[in-house]
Write a structure and sequence with these properties.
By secondary structure, the chain is mainly beta. Helix content is 0%, strand content 46%.
Length: 190
């Protein structure tokens, strides 16, 4: 319902398709600028802002945001992160996490989310997962499962597991049980 757009009519009654939408912002706290695809100019993101293919969102220190994707996933963005909406080309919906941390939750059973980081691709196929790309990529799964893959290997993570990737030249580490201290809670503030 959030992504529904009214299609304008051309003279003669032909419908024109509305610009594609990748996500809509539903929560913004702190300094969260965004840029339209191909534009170097940033504007301040507000709640209910429509984000289009190729747009990017940045969160500053102490800032957070939450988006709902067109495929039915919620993405919460932690401070000091850069997230790019899926591009205009290609069949897969691939969000880009250049740096920072996102938490995801699927809002229905058919929702899917793919996140590309500098170290690997995370295919989120479960309910809740946390992806953090700093000097090390860390993936935590709270519910459901995530496939973590790069050119050197693939790991399937299930609820309660964690894995890391040191860099693009390293295979994903084997999945292991997450300790209580490793479980994150930053997303609960959104």
């Amino acid at each position: 319902a959030l992504l529904l757009a009214v299609l304008p009519l051309l003279p003669g009654g032909q419908a024109v398709s509305a610009e594609k939408i990748a996500a809509v912002s539903v929560f913004v706290e702190g300094d969260v600028p965004y840029a339209r695809a191909g534009s170097g100019a940033y504007s301040e993101l507000k709640a209910n802002e429509l984000l289009h293919p190729g747009d990017s969102v940045k969160t500053g220190p102490g800032a957070k945001a939450s988006l709902i994707t067109k495929s039915g996933a919620e993405i919460r963005i932690n401070e000091n992160s850069v997230l790019e909406m899926p591009g205009k080309k290609g069949m897969r919906e691939m969000f880009g996490l250049a740096m920072g941390q996102v938490w995801s939750r699927m809002l229905h059973k058919r929702a899917k989310l793919n996140v590309r980081t500098p170290a690997a691709v995370c295919a989120v196929r479960g309910t809740e997962a946390d992806i953090e790309q700093r000097s090390l990529l860390t993936v935590k799964v709270y519910e459901g499962h995530v496939d973590l893959e790069n050119a050197l290997g693939k790991q399937s993570l299930f609820a309660g597991q964690i894995s890391t990737v040191a860099n693009p030249a390293s295979a994903p580490a084997p999945a292991r049980s997450m300790t209580q201290g490793e479980a994150g809670s930053w997303q609960e503030a959104i």
